[in-house]
Amino acid sequence: MEIKGFLVLSLLLSLATILECANKPPATQTTKGKTVTVLSIDGGGIRGIIPGTILAFLESKLQELDGPDARIAQYFDVISGTSTGGLVTAMLTAPGEDNRSRFAAKDINKFYSENGPEIFPQDNASTQGPKYDGEYLRSIIRESLGSITMNQTLTEVIIPTFDIKLLQPTMFSTSDAKVKTSKNALLADACIGTSAAPTLLPAYYFETEFEDGKTRSFNLIDGGVVAVNPTQVAVTHIFNEIVKGNFEFVDVKPMDTRKILVISLGTGTAKFEEKYNASTASQWSPRDWINPTIDSYSASSADLPDIAEDNLVGNTTSGDLATTENMEALADIGNKLLEKSVARVNIDTGAYEPVEEEGTNSDALIRFAKLLSDERKIRTAN
User: Where is this motif: GXSXG (predicted)?
Assistant: First the structure.
């Protein structure tokens, strides 16, 4: 099942989000956890403020249940993020003092508001090549994450990138880093690589070493080139680990009936407009940057079963407009989204329709926090 969207609360934060792996009940009762938990965060540049707002709310509810030291990373088996979502993933899972998250979820928006104007300087944009030189972004990520490597993250992390030299995807994961020194990159390097959106930021080069000491080189751009939906990457990884017998936290077998809880957070999409029909879709030039082919590719990657919001307009649709006014507007969108009704897309019409019996998105997040808390208590008790 492919899951994607701006904020997939309508599907992923209700009982409908609990995916059944098979119909036959397990022969024996598990002695570990009962539910696999996944968090996925999309790319979108400065619009990362929107999922940052949602994550801060979710973490606050976890703290109400389990105390002020509760952190997002403690509750998810896998956290996957692309582009700016990769940066958020790293912030949530980077170890700090006492092996707790170096950053709280509420620190995400603080990071964007303090550093966004320097990452995307509006008065110093280039007219040739990438719009920004990326130097400040690289510097602040290295400063924030230090010498932490992929094998040190607090939970399983997956950060998709694309190697522009080899023309193939490169996935950085905690599990790979533990068994392959060449994949045990600095967490900062993986973040910088996945954030290198081709039109905005330059490709990123760095090196690691193989077990025999030989050098491995990476030439990376934005992971969204191949994994615009990091949820797919995370769920595929989990099932691969289950099949190989490597999944540690939940005693599942490929044919067991087990539950997977997924929350997939996006960074917003522009308000839907019926720009094309069968006639106008043929009236464009290959030189046009905005054309039906590109729009269709983007939409088919982004719009799957349930999406709760797609009404960004004006400056808020930009991924790099890091003005104080726009960043405040994005935070306001995130807060207002919490109070909107859970919604699902009608696949026949493309319209987003509220599901009144499921309450607001904040109601759904509160329910989700309780599920996460209960699962963690089971594992702690065992």
Answer: 81-85
